[in-house]
């Protein structure tokens, strides 16, 4: 076998592994997101776009939302040294975790105590428009859900080791259990118990999910008493990740963007927070399914690409992962933007959710779907900057965060008084597009082998494919009569999604987008494998 032939097989195997792993994660998250849809439908049916629901969503956003940020933060800090150690043959265990993990746990335990003792200060800060009973209700639910913060720290440490080993089933599957508990309580007990029971259910389901994760992962991550294999001193030394400050900066940036949106939404008319939450939820359930599944699977591979000594290959790896994320995100976001009114009407257009609430939530969904287009490749850049061991990432990530928050705050300050909740979502899309451009400039300066002109040309081809697919979807909606029933709305959504995907792939084939060639190669390999088995 020649050297070239030997090199091709690992690349193809790697591609097949990525596709298979992404498929597993997408399937699990698809089931989880299906339950999330059911949760949103039940909440909309019980409470509509009301002040009570605004209070629940704000409390959840500032506790469960921060817990999600903690998971990303801890994973970002822990994953690079864990991957590097495991690639050197060291068995996975809790000993691979950086010592700063204890600081994470202590810090967020203190945050939990502060939030439980003085939740009113946090409510006033995050929701300045809430007054009276709505303010008090938010305080109560925030105090209940605060213990989820330290739980999230420990769970994310376990998940990081599992992710480094490409063990996604356990860490992703525990979310299904948590969501199923919430659906059960919403369906059977919320009407008599009230909205506060939803907060208690979030806490209980979080504890149950963590215990399941701990029980399943302990055999992998438990400390081992057997002696470690003797290694040279330079190999045995732990691999240092980037600083904690850099990880905090970029993760707080993403969380602050979300809190800015909802802070501005609290100043709009009643139901603005709920409409924004439904829009964000729908985008996280559909386009977010694609982006989060890819991010989970690609994160270890992106870290490995950036950590190699060949800087040209590292830059090429970043550009490749950026193209993959945008190529996968575009058709889903386009479908969401065109189908938002149908989706919101089919899922929430009953009970206390009236026509005005449907229109506002649909506009928010379309705006956030547009923002997701730019968020996907930008996240690839920020993750690569942090994982790069060749220079400190704090300065570059601080530039992205500070400029990004300034742009977002300015955009929302203009859009919110003019267009309300819908203006917030579309203002977020404009701000994300602008900060994506800033991140590209930072990447070019840091990774000097980053070929910006070639990258822009490749991204433009994917954007042109999305434009042609959007034109086909728009024509379908114009030519077909407007559906009047839930069944026909869902049928129209299915037809719209199928047409957009087919038009997008056809355009990508004609324009010779590189990602289509990769997909074709993987499909041929899988087909040949099944034929051999037959």
Automatic annotation (TrEMBL):
Its main location: membrane. Keywords: Cell membrane, Cell shape, Membrane, Peptidoglycan synthesis, Transmembrane, Transmembrane helix. It comes from the Bacteria. It holds the Pfam family MurJ. It is a multi-pass membrane protein. GO terms for molecular function: lipid-linked peptidoglycan transporter activity. The keyword Ubl conjugation does not apply. One of its GO terms (cellular component) is plasma membrane. The chain crosses the membrane at residues 22-44, 102-127, 147-164, 176-194, 200-221, 242-265, 285-303, 324-349, 355-376, 397-418, 424-444, 456-477, 489-511. It is found in: Cell membrane. One of its GO terms (biological process) is lipid translocation. Belongs to the MurJ/MviN family. Involved in peptidoglycan biosynthesis. Transports lipid-linked peptidoglycan precursors from the inner to the outer leaflet of the cytoplasmic membrane. PANTHER family: LIPID II FLIPPASE MURJ. This is Putative peptidoglycan lipid II flippase. It comes from Sphingomonas xinjiangensis.
């Amino acid at each position: 076998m020649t050297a070239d032939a030997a090199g091709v097989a690992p690349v193809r195997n790697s591609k097949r592994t990525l596709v298979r792993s992404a498929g597993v994660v997408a399937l699990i998250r698809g089931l989880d997101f299906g339950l999330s849809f059911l949760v949103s439908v039940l909440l909309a049916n019980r409470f509509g776009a009301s002040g009570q629901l605004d209070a629940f969503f704000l409390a959840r956003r500032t506790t469960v939302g921060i817990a999600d940020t903690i998971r990303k933060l801890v994973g970002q800090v822990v994953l690079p040294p864990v991957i590097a150690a495991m690639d050197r043959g060291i068995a996975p265990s809790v000993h691979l975790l950086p010592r700063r993990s204890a600081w994470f746990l202590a810090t967020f335990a203190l945050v939990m105590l502060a939030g439980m003792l003085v939740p009113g200060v946090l409510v006033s800060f995050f929701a300045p428009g809430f007054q009276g009973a709505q303010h008090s209700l938010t305080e109560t639910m925030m105090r209940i859900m605060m213990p989820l913060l330290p739980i999230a720290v420990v769970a994310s440490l376990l998940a990081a080791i599992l992710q480094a080993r490409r063990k996604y089933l356990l860490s992703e599957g525990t979310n299904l259990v948590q969501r199923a508990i919430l659906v059960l309580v919403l369906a059977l007990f919320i009407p008599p118990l009230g909205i506060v029971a939803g907060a208690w259910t979030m806490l209980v389901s979080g504890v149950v999910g963590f215990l399941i994760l701990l029980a399943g992962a302990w055999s992998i991550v438990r400390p081992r008493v057997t002696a470690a294999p003797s290694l040279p001193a330079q190999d045995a030394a732990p691999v240092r990740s980037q600083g904690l400050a850099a990880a905090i900066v970029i993760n707080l940036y993403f969380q602050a963007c979300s809190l800015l949106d909802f802070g501005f939404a609290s100043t709009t008319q009643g139901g603005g927070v709920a409409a924004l939450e439904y829009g964000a939820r729908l985008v996280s359930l559909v386009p977010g399914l694609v982006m989060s599944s890819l991010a989970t699977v690609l994160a270890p591979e992106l870290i490995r690409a950036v950590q190699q000594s060949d800087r040209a290959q590292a830059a090429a790896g970043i550009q490749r992962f950026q193209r993959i994320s945008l190529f996968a995100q575009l058709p889903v976001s386009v479908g969401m933007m065109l189908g938002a009114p149908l989706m919101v009407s089919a899922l929430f257009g009953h009970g206390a959710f009236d026509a005005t609430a449907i229109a506002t939530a649909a506009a928010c969904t379309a705006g956030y779907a547009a923002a997701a287009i730019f968020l996907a490749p930008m996240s690839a850049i920020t993750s690569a900057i942090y994982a790069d061991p060749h220079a400190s990432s704090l300065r570059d990530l601080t530039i992205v965060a500070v400029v990004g928050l300034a742009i977002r705050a300015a955009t929302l300050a203009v859009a919110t008084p003019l267009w309300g909740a819908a203006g917030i979502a579309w203002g977020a899309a404009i701000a994300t597009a602008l900060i994506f451009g800033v991140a590209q400039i930072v990447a070019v300066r840091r990774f000097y082998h980053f070929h910006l002109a070639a990258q822009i040309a490749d991204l433009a081809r994917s954007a042109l494919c999305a434009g042609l697919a959007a034109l086909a979807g728009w024509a379908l909606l114009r030519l077909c009569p407007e559906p009047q029933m839930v069944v026909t709305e869902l049928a129209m959504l299915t037809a719209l999604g199928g047409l957009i995907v087919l038009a997008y792939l056809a355009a990508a084939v004609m324009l010779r987008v590189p990602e289509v060639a990769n997909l074709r190669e993987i499909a041929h390999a899988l087909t040949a494998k099944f034929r051999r088995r037959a």
